[in-house]
């Protein structure tokens, strides 16, 4: 049971990953992302999730450089974007990300989406990066079970993490079960569904019972399902609120009721939608 901000998920290679991180998607490079990270670090966060797509890796790097938190205590994630996939292309994209971040290594490097015909070649590049010690862990994002099975069939190293859209409207229980069986840590992006379900009566009722907010209830549900979570915010009080989830526990009934809100409803793209990938061909 996760009871402290110091608790960590242990990846299958032994690397320890914080259960809660700050997502910085759409945080503007420069002062906005730097200030958000400073607030997060002051609040106890040690994990920051960015990507080349977000165009704020330089700001993330500056915030890290200006922080008093030792680099070895931080967990920094970035991702290779779809238009950069392929073996040589991914190696070049990783070098560019490291340079923008101003780091010698990242803690986790992910394939952002399973681009058809590309992700296996891209994974070979991630294996090389991992074997060179320039990423402490490697993984994927937005992979469904069939993508994972296809990747693992030819991989030398099994992904350590699968970061996917995950919230009470999209519980992906079969994928979560599969990842647990495979020793792949599931991680939730857009866990709060941009606040669209904060007025959901079930969540409001459970939040009132625990004297917490609906956001805190959802994030606690993530942790108790064994899912790492990376809520994004650029607002100080929300950043602080989102990590204040270690002093209570949801009951089994609470967990069941929240999971029952599932509608298999995606807010982002479907990883199997061929139209989504046409722009990267």
TrEMBL record:
Start and end residues of each NADP-dependent oxidoreductase domain: 29-262
Molecular function terms, GO-annotated: oxidoreductase activity, acting on the CH-OH group of donors, NAD or NADP as acceptor
Binding site for substrate: 112
Residue numbers annotated as active site: 54 (proton donor)
Keywords, comma-separated and alphabetical: NADP, Oxidoreductase
Site feature location: Lowers pKa of active site Tyr: 79
Domain of life: Bacteria
InterPro entries in UniProt: AKR (IPR020471), AKR5G (IPR044500), Aldo/ket_reductase_CS (IPR018170), NAD(P)_OxRdtase_dom_sf (IPR036812), NADP_OxRdtase_dom (IPR023210)
Biased composition (Basic and acidic residues): 263-281
Entry keyword Transmembrane: no
PROSITE patterns the UniProt entry points to: ALDOKETO_REDUCTASE_1 (PS00798), ALDOKETO_REDUCTASE_2 (PS00062), ALDOKETO_REDUCTASE_3 (PS00063)
Any Pfam family the entry gives: Aldo_ket_red
Residue numbers spanned by region Disordered: 261-281
Protein family according to the UniProt entry: Belongs to the aldo/keto reductase family.
Protein name: Glyoxal reductase
Protein's organism: Fictibacillus arsenicus
Phylogenetic lineage: Bacteria, Bacillati, Bacillota, Bacilli, Bacillales
């Amino acid at each position: 049971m996760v009871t402290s901000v110091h608790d960590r998920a242990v990846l299958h290679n032994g690397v320890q990953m914080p259960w809660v991180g700050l997502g910085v998607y759409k945080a503007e490079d420069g002062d906005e992302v730097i200030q958000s990270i400073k607030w997060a670090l002051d609040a106890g966060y040690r994990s920051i999730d960015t990507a080349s797509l977000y165009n704020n890796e330089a700001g993330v790097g500056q915030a890290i450089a200006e922080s008093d938190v030792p680099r070895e205590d931080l967990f920094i994630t970035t991702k290779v974007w779809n238009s950069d996939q392929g073996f040589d292309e991914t190696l070049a994209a990783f070098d560019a990300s490291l340079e923008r971040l101003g780091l010698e290594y990242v803690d986790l490097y992910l394939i952002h989406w399973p681009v058809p015909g590309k992700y296996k070649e891209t994974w070979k590049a991630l294996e090389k990066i991992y074997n060179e010690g320039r990423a402490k862990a490697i993984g994927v994002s937005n992979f469904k079970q069939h993508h994972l099975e296809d990747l693992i069939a030819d991989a030398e190293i099994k992904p350590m993490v699968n970061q996917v859209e995950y919230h009470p409207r999209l519980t992906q229980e079969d994928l979560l079960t599969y990842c647990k069986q495979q020793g792949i840590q599931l991680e939730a992006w857009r866990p709060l569904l941009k606040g669209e379900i904060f007025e959901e009566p079930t969540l409001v009722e459970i939040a009132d019972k625990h004297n917490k907010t609906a956001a805190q209830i959802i994030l606690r549900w993530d942790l108790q399902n064994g899912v790492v979570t990376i809520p994004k915010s650029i607002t100080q009080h929300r950043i602080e609120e989102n990590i204040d989830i270690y002093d209570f526990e949801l009951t089994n009934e609470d967990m069941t009721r929240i999971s029952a809100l599932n509608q298999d409803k995606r807010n982002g793209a479907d990883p199997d939608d061929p139209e989504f990938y046409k722009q990267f061909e």
